[in-house]
Amino acid sequence: MNIGIACYPVYGGSGVVATELGKALAERGHDVHFMSYSMPFRLGHIKDNISFHEVDVNSYPLFEYPPYTLNLTSKMVDVVKHGNLDILHVHYAIPHATSAVLARQILAGEGIKIPVITTLHGTDITLVGRDPSFASIVDYSINQSDGVTAVSEYLKKETLNSCLIKADIRAIPNFIDTDQYSPLNKDHFKLALCPNGEKLLVHVSNFRPVKRVADVIQMFARLKDDGYAVKMLLVGDGPDRMATEHLARELNVMDDIRFLGKQEPVGEILSVADIFVLPSGSETFGLAALEAMSCAVPVIATDVGGLPELIQDGITGFLFPLGDVDALVDRAKQMLDNDDLRMKMAQASRKRAIDSFSKQLIVPMYESYYQEIIDKVESRPLSLEHQS
Question: Is the pTM higher than 0.85?
């Protein structure tokens, strides 16, 4: 197939999943065309069957803000026509689904059918979709898509409950390259970080308020106060980074914490971790947790959103109530006090990543769904495409 993928190129879940999906599809022999305003950061080297089409955002005196949605639409029309695309797969409702629906209508006027699949990732529904100024266009863009997927059953239900959606939604979970994210022998790295045999806790996020990184620092300080030999790595960056550093200094634990900033890939860092901590206020799936699990690291996370679909409480890690730092500390102590339990959870985490969320399992689901939607659109009169 010739597949067009539109996504945000920045550090974040939807861009990561879209880029990794495109790379996996290319490995399976498909031609993949990425469209965005800059190179997706996970894309790396361009291969023979992977193309990147930059969306130019021109400045005109007439426009105070460049109309990116229209520029993206124009790029989609051009790539579909000259790349002979079979399908457009867009990630995130705004503006990608909106642009794709408009591009489909333009192309229908020229006698070209192009199916549109929209994948919902989370904040396009839980945040943007609930904003009254965007709600109508989010609903329209989803309903006008030929196919719609969500990255978890939780997000599917949340979309149907909070939006006026008539379209069918297929839940296809996020996936992981279990070869890239695998346990590695990094004893020298671990020794440099933990010279006295300390246990290493890791948190990875974009340091936004919803990630509740302060809870991680509070937990870590409590563990130190209770005499636990632990170190902490914090990976990522964002608006709460400065406040988090300030809290670590205030609680006198900064000497045992390293702020590494944005790191990619994080597989080598995760391979030296003993526990991964994710106290988020909202997670529609929990890709960072899956990356840790694939590296055989048990996860302690809040029991919110899609995380219970990923983490098996008491088997691959622990779930705890949102905002309950006492419970978070208690779960961490259970792992730190019992090496056998922690190692058993580590092995179970790796097994779950392979058995339920590997790219070998999930990418064929997308291929099958592509063909299903292509067949549906092919059977539809072209006149209906133009009217939609």
Answer: yes
